[in-house]
Design brief:
9% helix; four-stranded mixed sheet; single chain
Length: 160
């Protein structure tokens, strides 16, 4: 049994461990977005919770809900970042302590949008509706061929 397995391994090892393939390195792309991200940011009232509230909706260029958009809230004083996500309908409703924040909205294939500085007070309700626009399209994809190299191997000669 060992002899059979050893023979099979020896026969196929040349194929399995061959270094003669010229594989390409990929990863360079030029991206384009047909339209820009639009935001509606306004204070719509006050609550009795004692916390500030950020709520709103994310949608695309055809006004369809965009789910699972990551929302990163960073307190600019303490540098603490909390990460939230929109629900299946693109809605979010976040209670947070008062302070000055930066807010980053990001979704793969849509890009990201950052509100650099927003001052939230106790009981303030801030509504942020975000039109993410169209998806990002790759307009050019460049492949770069890798260098070809071979590993030296020791050839065994049979004695006669």
């Amino acid at each position: 049994m060992k002899i059979i397995l050893s023979s099979i391994f020896c026969l196929f090892s040349v194929l399995l461990f061959s270094q003669n393939e010229n594989k390409a390195i990929t990863g360079f792309s030029k991206e384009e977005k047909a339209d820009s991200i639009k935001v509606e940011n306004k204070t719509i009232g006050y609550s009795n919770t004692g916390f500030a509230k950020i709520k709103g909706k994310t949608f695309d260029g055809q006004l369809r809900s965009v789910e699972s958009v990551e929302i990163s809230l960073t307190n600019l004083s303490s540098k603490i970042t909390n990460i939230y996500e929109t629900n299946d309908d693109g809605l979010f409703d976040i209670n947070i302590e008062r302070g000055i924040y930066s807010i980053l909205f990001s979704k793969r294939s849509y890009g990201e949008f950052k509100i650099e500085k927003i001052d939230l007070n106790d009981c303030q309700i801030q509504e942020i509706n975000l039109n993410l626009g169209s998806r990002i399209n790759i307009v050019e994809y460049i492949t770069v061929p890798a260098q070809e190299f071979s590993l030296p191997s020791k050839k065994k000669t049979k004695k006669k």
